[in-house]
Structures are given as C-alpha cells and as structure tokens.
Design a protein that fits this description.
This protein has 222 residues and is of the alpha+beta class. The chain has helices at 6-19, 77-83, 93-113, 115-124, 130-137, 142-149; strands at residues 152-153, 157-158, 163-167, 175-179, 185-189, 201-204, 210-214, 218-221. Strands 1-8-3-6 form a 4-stranded antiparallel beta sheet.
Length: 222
C-alpha cells in the first residue's frame, strides 16, 4: 500500500482540522478503561494516528472519485471505496488512506492480545473510524466488528433489548441498573462486590426503559 510522506501528514492534519466537524473534544482519559487484568494495552494509551482521526470527514469540497489516485502506484477497489468522500481538495489521498490503515493496525494489535479489549475499543470509539476501516481495509478483523455491532458502551441506554450481557472490563467498580418506564428499578448489580478478574454480567429484564451503567466500559451479549 502507498505510504504517505511526512509533509503530506502535516498538510492533512491542517486541512482536516479546518474542515472536519468538531466531535466536542473526545477525551480518552475520561472514558472507562478496557479489561483491567488484560494483557492487551489500553487502546487509549496507544499512540494515536499522526494524521487526524480516521472518522474525521471534511465538510468542504472533496476530491471526486475519478481523481482518487496516488502519486505513484494505484489504489485497490476497496481502498477507493474507503477514500470516497474523505479526501479534501488538493490533498494527497494516500495520506487519508494512512489514517484508515493505522486504525486497522490498532485493532489488529489489540485483538492479537485480547479480543474483548479490541471489541470494546471499537464500541466506545477509542479506535476512531474502525468500522469503515475494517469494512474496506482489513476485512480479517470483521469478527471484531461483528461483535462490536452487537454491543454498546457504558452510560445510559434507552430501551435496550432484554437479555444477558457481559461487561468488557475486569474493574471492580462496575455497577449497573435497569429501570422501567415509571422510573422503578427492575434490576441492578452486581449482587456482590466483584473481585479483580471476575466477569461482570447483567440480566436486562423485558420492559426496561433505561439501562445505565458506570465503570463497565462496554457491554456485549453474554
């Protein structure tokens, strides 16, 4: 795959800083961490891509698909699909492609050591742009994406599907609560304070209007 130059990275960072929609200042340190006892590095501590996040799309004019060509070599069909609508005018598309490749690398590195940590990082957005990057640039990571698409991050969730879920954390401060439409507590947990390394699960009853959790990072079906 074509590798961008250092100069292209600087130009891309400047262009997308001006054109991309603000995300409200995502702060990885404010988010719950992945499995505390996991051997996988926390994706939030992994060096971020040198170019802007892979999910940052320009709001200004972009290169038409017909002009998505690198200075040397060529893009694959899937690389072109990934780049479509992402490359600001007068920008090297290879520099934009690099951000997606780096997202793929972060997913793969984390998944190699701990698939739960990788799944949680995709669910919470710790690895920005992972969905599109996996879809077009690293299809070997689609099992991680498939698992992530069935889950949801900690915090309030309206009208969740009833069922059993597992928290993607081994932290001992994870708590959850399911409420009905009238605000009554239908279920909560854990029943006993978890110990380090314990798996934390939640049984969401039918009729739950809001499921709220804290310190749990992310949830997937158990």
């Amino acid at each position: 795959m074509y590798r961008r130059s250092a100069a292209a990275a600087v130009l891309l960072a400047a262009a997308l800083t001006l054109t991309a929609c603000s995300s409200g200042g995502d702060d990885a340190d404010a988010k719950a961490k992945p499995p505390a006892s996991s051997a996988a590095p926390d994706p939030a501590d992994t060096p971020a891509p040198s170019a802007p996040a892979a999910d940052a799309k320009p709001t200004g004019p972009v290169l038409p698909d017909a002009k998505l060509t690198p200075k040397t070599g060529s893009f694959t069909a899937e690389e072109k699909k990934y780049l479509s609508g992402r490359v600001p005018e007068k920008m090297d598309p290879a520099a934009v492609l690099q951000t997606g490749q780096e997202a793929c690398q972060r997913v793969a590195r984390t998944a190699k050591r701990d698939k739960d940590a990788a799944t949680g990082a995709v669910i919470t957005g710790e690895i920005a742009g992972a969905k599109d990057a996996i879809t077009h640039l690293c299809p070997d990571q689609k099992p991680i994406l498939a698992a992530a698409e069935k889950g949801f991050p900690e915090g309030p969730r309206q009208s969740p599907a009833a069922g059993n879920y597992r928290a993607l954390t081994q932290a001992t401060n994870c708590t959850w609560e399911a409420k009905g439409k009238d605000g009554s507590v239908l279920a909560s947990g854990p029943e006993a304070p978890p110990k380090a390394g314990d798996k934390i699960t939640a049984a969401i009853p039918a009729g739950t209007a809001e499921f709220n959790s804290s310190g749990c990072y992310a949830w997937i079906p158990a």
